[in-house]
Design goal:
The complex is a heterodimer of chains A (182) and B (471). Chain A has 182 residues and is mostly helical. Chain A contains eight helices and no strands. Chain A is globular and about 50 Å long. The mean pLDDT of chain A is 91. With 471 residues, chain B is of the alpha+beta class. In chain B, strand 7 and strand 8 form a beta hairpin. In chain B, the strands form four sheets. In chain B, strands 1, 2, 5, 6, 7, 8, 16, 17, 18, 19, 20, 21, 22 and 23 form a 14-stranded mixed β-sheet that branches. The model of chain B has no long low-confidence stretch (mean pLDDT 95). Chain B is 22% helix and 24% strand. The chains are: A mainly alpha (182), B alpha+beta (471). At the A-B interface, helix 4, helix 5, helix 6 and helix 8 of A face helix 1, helix 9 and helix 10 of B.
């Protein structure tokens, strides 16, 4: 399945990369061309998520889980791909639901943050894919400089797991509190 | 208010990401001597190698960094009427620092084809010594063949000496082993040790087949312990060296250097006298050095192997053809060989060594590095060093590499060499992670899920906080 994954993964990479650029542009500009670009964001993101899911599913079929789950690079690729997909799904849902509201006031800076983080996750996933397919790039050197050796599994200790779960709960609670105050 | 909540959401999300980045990779990898786990602080070290030959003799020169030399090994200290042993193989570094430095080299002439592609990995079988799941001594001793060969642990062996590589017990019939040996299915092992027996300018000569054996003949050291009498066999001969024993404090404080007596030579020893005036702190080496005989004594130190200015510099020499084809790989001009190296340092023993990937050595042939042909008896060493990266291999076995747990098992079946897919630093990290495989897998799963939860939580917060106000 590896060749089909390589083929399919071009689509979410291209679509999400374009989406990142559009978000960057739109966050800093209200000019007609930027507005026009902003209008194509929803289809870009939705298509990215759909093709991303397909590429992800095909990717899961390349190696048995026993093999990919035993390889640090494999684990890293899987975690990065899962988070990328989840994260871009979040962006797609947000843009779809909220429309132009995401460019109003401080919301545009939230979008900028979302776009930058999405681009970063995409870079990590792509770089790991290169490693896994036997074509490592120098991007991993950057990760090393920032403190992560890509040949070691990315995991957090138990107390951080608790922090992450608490953070997720706190985020939901914050959102609920905001809705209650409308 | 909603703006504040939005800002708080962003802060929570970003802070969680930053903390995850800061603390990632912690909490699992830790030393656990009960499980034979000790992770060296440094995972890779450099080794420099040169080779030369004159048609008669083959020379190898090795140079590697070490903070200090470890010359002492396996000592017995007299304490309150008993001889206590210090310096046997233990997981991790020997606590008193009494464990010798070593350099070893595996050699093949093509008769073990997997060796050229995967190096020493092919010799790491099922339930190896000092692995977490190592086979018990009683199990090995009870094995019909290995027990007969006086094996007490599962050591390095070649894959086809087993009918099932994933079962150390499945040794093929003895007749087949003999046929394999005659066909050259073994690896020659040059094994230099700083204590056993560098002081007499000798190196051990061994081979790996169905187990790791010393070559035929008399070894260059033997054990100074009488199991029946529960006492040393030999002690220093005062008439020859002016003392009956070493002083423990001299060893503990590392006072004895290359020019001092820190070893016991057979010709400087006499039978142990239990009635001698032994006092606490008297120390006898548990290994006695001797010249050795036959194939086992084929390899010598050329010049002097010494540590200086942070580096060991060791040159070994052996006849190109020793005339022992069942023990040694003969070096022939215009041929290519595969070699792989290992280094022990910092008082680490057994599997806590640094190893290399296989290197091709050419004698007047293109290869990873070439042996220089010279005339006379002394190599000129004018060629550049071959720089090799050694790495800590962790607990990675050949059965594992050929199992469903290795995504590259299919590549091994296809014959893809390890170097085409992995670097030394990658293998070192993989080796470490393999020692904590289940714990890391569990933690990784939870991390994946926690990350998805965080993203989902952030999505909920952003969507609710940015949604239009209801009229």
């Amino acid at each position: 399945m590896a060749p089909y994954h390589h083929l399919m993964v071009h689509f979410p990479i291209a679509l999400w990369t374009t989406a990142t650029l559009v978000i960057l542009w739109r966050a800093f500009s209200d000019k007609p061309l930027a507005l026009a670009a902003g209008r194509v964001l929803t289809p870009l993101l939705v298509l990215g998520v759909v093709t991303g899911f397909i590429a992800y599913a095909i990717g899961l079929a390349i190696f048995p889980f026993e093999a990919i789950g035993s390889s640090p690079l494999g684990r890293n690729k899987l975690i990065a791909a899962t988070w990328s997909l989840a994260y871009w799904t979040l962006i797609a849902v947000t843009v779809w639901r909220l429309g132009n509201r995401v460019w109003e006031g401080t919301a545009r800076w939230v979008m900028l943050l979302l776009g930058l983080l999405g681009g970063a996750l995409l870079t990590v996933t792509g770089a790991l894919g290169g490693h896994l397919s036997g074509s490592p790039s120098a991007v991993s050197q950057l990760f090393r400089l920032l403190g992560w050796e890509v040949y070691t599994t990315f995991y957090v200790p138990n107390f951080m797991l608790a922090v992450l779960v608490l953070a997720a709960v706190a985020l939901v609670a914050t959102g609920m509190a905001g809705r209650a105050r409308r | 208010m909603r703006q504040r909540l939005l800002n708080a959401s962003i802060a929570i999300f970003v802070l969680a990401l930053i903390l995850s980045w800061v603390f990632h990779g912690t909490g699992v990898v830790k030393n656990d001597l009960k499980r034979n786990i000790y992770i060296p602080a440094t995972l890779t070290i450099p080794l420099q190698v040169k080779a030369a030959y004159n048609g008669d003799k083959m020379f190898f020169r090795y140079r590697w960094p070490a903070k200090e030399p470890h010359l002492y090994h396996d000592m017995m200290k007299y304490q309150d009427g008993k001889w206590e042993r210090y310096g046997k193989s233990v997981p991790g570094p020997q606590p008193q620092g009494i464990y010798e430095d070593r350099v070893a080299m595996l050699v093949d002439d093509g008769a073990v084809p997997e060796f050229e592609k995967y190096g020493g990995y092919i010799t790491i079988g099922d339930r190896m010594r000092f692995f977490t799941n190592e086979a018990k001594k009683e199990e090995v001793e009870a094995h019909a063949y290995l027990g007969k060969k006086k094996q007490v642990e599962v050591g390095k062996h070649l894959p086809e000496t087993r009918s099932n590589v994933a079962d150390w017990k499945s040794v093929v019939p003895e007749a087949q082993l003999q046929a394999q040996r005659k066909a050259g299915y073994f690896l020659d092992l040059w094994h230099w040790r700083a204590h056993r027996s560098n002081p007499i300018n000798k190196s051990d000569d061994q081979e790996i087949a169905e187990a790791r054996y010393g070559d035929e003949g008399k070894g260059v050291f033997f054990t100074n312990w009488d199991n029946d009498k529960k006492q040393p066999k030999l002690m220093f001969d005062t008439a020859k060296v002016g003392k009956t024993a070493l002083n423990w404090d001299d060893l503990a404080n590392r006072k004895l250097g290359f020019d001092d007596l820190y070893y016991l030579r057979e010709d400087q020893a006499k039978p142990y006298d239990p009635k001698a005036a032994w006092k606490n702190g008297d120390t006898l080496p548990r290994r006695v050095l001797r010249k050795g005989e036959g194939s086992r004594a084929d390899i010598s130190v050329h010049g002097q192997a010494r540590w200086k200015d942070g580096y060991w510099d060791v040159t070994l020499v052996r006849a190109m053809d020793t005339g022992h084809p069942l023990d040694d790989k003969a070096f022939v001009d215009n041929r290519v060989y595969t070699v792989a190296f290992s280094v022990h340092r910092n008082a680490f023993g057994s599997r806590w060594h640094y190893v290399s990937l296989p290197q091709r050595l050419g004698l007047n042939r293109q290869a990873d590095f070439k042996a220089a042909r010279f005339d006379g008896s002394e190599p000129k060493w004018e060629q550049d060093w071959q720089n090799v990266t050694l790495f800590y291999p962790g607990q990675v076995s050949w059965p594992l590499l050929n199992s469903a747990k290795h995504a590259g098992a299919e590549n091994i079946k296809k014959g893809t060499p390890v170097r085409a897919r992995h670097s030394e630093i990658q293998l070192a990290h993989y080796g470490v992670e393999m020692e904590f495989a289940e714990d890391i897998l569990r933690q990784w799963r939870y991390t994946l899920l926690a990350g998805v939860l965080l993203i989902a939580g952030f999505g909920v917060a952003v969507n609710l906080l940015l949604a239009k106000k209801e009229k």
